[in-house]
Amino acid sequence: METIAIGCDEAAYNLKVAIIKHLGTLGIRCDDFGAAAGEVILYPDVAFKVADAVAAGKYKRAILVCGTGLGMCICANKVPGVRAAVCHDPFSAERARMSNNAQILCMGERVIGVELAKKIVDIWLAAEFSEKSHSQPKVQRIAELEQEHCKR
Ligand code: RB5
């Protein structure tokens, strides 16, 4: 499995560390975009860095965590080409890949327990988007409308 980019703010530092450790036990490496332990950081600064790296093709997948997952997700989705999704249940985690081809998984440490978060990471990593699926034209349409919108 390719290296995964990961980032957090101070509200989700512990969840980030737990996910990095969990992925390490599976032999999956993470590139950590911060925050560092004890560092107070504005979540948009982390989210845009990680999302930019994904949009540039440096990472196929990334994980962003904050208090709720929402702020990170809002920011990441502002970067053209990025599809980020907040998933706090297994079904959404699977569909975020299979229906939406989401490259970035977002979660909130104030919302979800560590064990469920690890399970969600596993499901999200295992699920693959198929270019042949009925979801492909919809994901393609996101890209088309995004491009049109960016030209305005
Ligand atoms: C804390 O700054 C909190 O607002 C943040 O972690 C996140 O939940 C925002 O969406």
Overview of this structure, please?
The chain has 152 residues and is an alpha/beta fold. Helices cover 47% and strands 14% of the residues. It contains six helices and five strands. It has helices at 13-25, 43-55, 70-76, 90-98, 114-126, 136-151, and strands at 4-8, 30-32, 62-66, 84-86, 104-108. A five-stranded parallel sheet has the order 2-1-3-5-4, with helices on both faces. α4 (90-98) links the parallel β4 and β5 (104-108). α1 packs across α5. It is globular, with a radius of gyration of 15 Å. It starts with a strand and ends with a helix. The mean pLDDT is 98. It binds D-ribose (RB5). Residues 9, 11, 43, 66-68, 70-71, 108 line the site of D-ribose.
